[in-house]
From TrEMBL:
Organism: Hoeflea halophila
One Pfam family recorded for the sequence: COXG
Domain of life the protein comes from: Bacteria
Protein name: Carbon monoxide dehydrogenase subunit G
InterPro entries: CO_DH_gsu, START-like_dom_sf
Length: 151
């Protein structure tokens, strides 16, 4: 599955960059995230509970930040295991471009799922993935824009 998108955030690029590297911000924005802990400067471990169609799963896994070019871009990659539900793995290239007082965040995601979840079909997985990504970026935009506005 591949997915691309863009989000315009009313905040300076440095503030957006800091939020993208803040486990507390990410935990609050990731749908179904139960835990997210920084284990090193470039690694985090997470537990996420999601439902895709009739399958509910709790994924545990690790996330790694690579190709870091602060405060412009990085690649985030990870793999989660959901027991009998299966697994999910993938990555995203994230870029930040300053445009005046705003920051344009673009992303390109590549992900794979296997096991019971993969049997649900690519349409359901793709639509759920797009919905979850939309929820993440909407919440991220709200949080970071509010920080930039000082509220």
């Amino acid at each position: 599955m591949e997915m691309n998108g863009e989000e315009r955030i009313a905040a300076p690029r440095q503030l957006v960059w800091e939020a993208l590297n803040d486990p507390d911000v990410l935990r609050e924005c990731i749908p179904g995230c139960q835990t997210l802990e920084k284990t090193s400067d470039t690694e985090m471990s997470a537990t996420v509970k999601i439902k895709i169609g009739p399958v509910a799963a709790k994924f545990t896994g690790d996330v790694t930040l690579e190709n870091i070019n602060a405060p412009e871009s990085y690649t985030i990659s990870g793999e989660g295991k959901g027991g009998i539900a299966g697994f999910a793995k993938g990555g995203a290239d994230v870029n930040l471009v300053e445009e005046g007082a705003e920051t344009v965040l673009t992303y390109a995601v590549n992900a794979q799922v296997g096991g019971k979840i993969a049997q649900l079909g690519s349409r359901l997985i793709d639509s759920t993935s797009k919905k979850l990504a939309g929820q993440f970026f909407n919440r991220f935009n709200e949080l970071v824009s509010a920080r930039a506005a000082g509220t």
